[in-house]
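Now for a sample.
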Amino acid sequence: MIGTAVHVRDLRPADWPEVSRIYAEGIATGKATFETDVPAWEAWDAAHLPEHRHTRRTVRSSAGSREVGTRERIGRLDGVWRDVVFLERRSEVVG
């Protein structure tokens, strides 16, 4: 990481106002998700596995994420086939 502190923790219901705003921005692009509306916290909470919910305070390429693969034409939204890009963050400790 280049001079950036990144704190990762489990997502909490209190995070939803900010997360849902970012989620809405992703929906508006038509590329970030197959969802078309931002659900209420209760609906989102019921639809997502608890062990895969994390939030971090800083998101940028300097945090060490890299693209490791693409699944092409995985879903269709508004008549356009979409790809899914997989990212990973390698540990600076483990290597």
Observations:
- The beta strands are 8-10, 54-56, 65-77, 80-89.
- The chain has one domain: 8-89.
